[in-house]
Request: fold
Amino acid sequence: MLPFHKMLERAFTGPVCSEHDFDMKILIPNLRKVVKKYDIKYDRTQPVPADDGLADRVWQAGLEFLEETGLFCPDTERRILFTRKEIDAALAVGPRGKVVGASHDARTIPRRFPEDKTPPFCSVGGVSVPMSTDANFISVVRAIGQNPLADAVANPSMTHVDGQMIVAASPLEVEGAIRGMIMAREGLRRAGRPDLAIVNACPAAAKAAGHIAGHRFGIGKGDALEIGTTAEMRIDFDSLNKIAFSLSTGSLVFGENGVILGGLAGGPEGTAVLMATYNPVDILVLRACCQHPFPTHFDLRTTSTRDTIWARSLGNQAAATASCRS
Amino acid sequence: MGLQPGMQEVGDKFRKYEIYLPEMMMAAEAFDHAMKVLEPRLASSGEARQKMGRVVLGTVQGDIHTLGKNIVATMLKLNGFEVHDLGVDVPASSFVKKAQEVQANVIAISALMTTTMGQQKSVIEHLKAGGIRDKYYVMIGGGCTTQAWADEIGADGYGQTAADATALALAAVRKEKA
Reply:
């Protein structure tokens, strides 16, 4: 697979492009083109589609879109491009059976294929749910840890440190990241599962400084950093810093793919294609051990509308079907 | 003007989920290009484009989320506003400077996260410190924000959706003109 530093080099040497032109002249037309070319049409009567042909077309559309579009780096205003050969090579060596957690709480993330009977990997938690007190934070993590179905936990959110509202990119965010890790470990200890993996060891939205600080205070090799693209097909230096750090420390990465249905992806068709595109993006760019897709409706702010479920099901089916063949 | 009904239709279709942001952005671009051709001719014939008002908007410092802001910006443009989009990760003072520079009617401040919503308050405090708070209609929005938060920090309006934001801005400029 293309080494990380080679990928990074392209953020400095790729074609120069303004953000406006990337959206209006590259991303939007390319996505619309593949949706049309591969005849991808939303069917609201089938929120969980079972059409293998459609899934194959979504997969092909996703790969073609990635090859023609690349990712935009806002810090350098350049495009990071990949050849089809590089994309295929990454898929061929993508993550297989990664283990998270440690000792009694170690769990393998299974590869699952369409209609697979293997139980899914369950990370359970209160992502983005603000906790009113530190005691509540610990209690919630403890309760999640006690859930026998939990293969891993996802931390809730802290909003204050010692009564002060956490401010992004400030020292308070670093303190929050440290405090959050210490409290999450304490919650898991009280649950009797001290080595259960934490898959968002620091919130994805926190800056790299928070991720790095949290590492010193309890993020282990069995935990994962949740790292995502900063917006559709964009990756900034701060996210790349997190990836570089995780590669050096051996922490795993959960690839966060929160495509916004109704945003730059357009409707459910474009969202499904982007879901498929993000599978190789997660391997090539985020260096993720697992894809965490959650398309969200732009207006209703939920992942469970009929069209977001359709896009998510189809994108996952497309990637899983293709994965069967690799 | 002949373009306005088409733009309103675009806005209506967006509200009904019949089209999405890409189509809205393309419509707004087409509108901008058409105005570049039409405005000199309007000016030479002694007429001028009727703008609803000027809006300065951006996502606050520490927050790089673009989407909600972009939807609001596009909706405002489609409704005849001159929009000055400062982008993301915008310091509080930049909102104030730009609003003064362009003589804005409205300042629209977006924040998605609990860790960045405090910066919305900071913009208002900067306006107060400059003694110019009352010159602008200040509205806020973003995933973690609420009407209660808007009230707490002294914002004039809170929009949960882009349609809310547009309605607030329209009401504000109409009130100002009345």
Q: What stands out?
A: The CA atoms of residues 25 and 74 of chain B lie 6 Å apart. Chain B touches chain A through 28 residues (CB under 8 Å). DSSP finds seven helices and five strands in chain B.
